[in-house]
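Quarterly update from the structural biology core.
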Amino acid sequence: MDATRPSAIVSIPVVSELAGSCTGAEPFALMVLGDSMLPEFEEGDVVVIEPGGVAGDGSFVLAFHNDEWIFRQLVRSAARWLLRPLNPSYAEQEIADLEPVRGVIIQKSKPGRRRAMKRYV
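Predicted structure, tokenized:
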């Protein structure tokens, strides 16, 4: 990978499934369940998602894929996109385009620990 060339950046449209809910285009928070995103995201961490955020190679995203909601890292590999878990025990999933991506993680925090916050944008 050429370090001087910027990664592809794609704007994510707000889809009707989210637009019709109470979240709309406003950021919302979810709690991480499971261990697929260890070591960066532990079970119980709270992530803030921007539904209309800009996703690019390396972004952490919320996606609706194969009839389930998943939290993964978006990775560009040649001419394809992958939803990659950070935990190598889980398989990455190829997506044809960015339509399954419904939001970008912009912040992480640990409940009850104000100083344990990390921003991703």
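The helical segments are 16-19.
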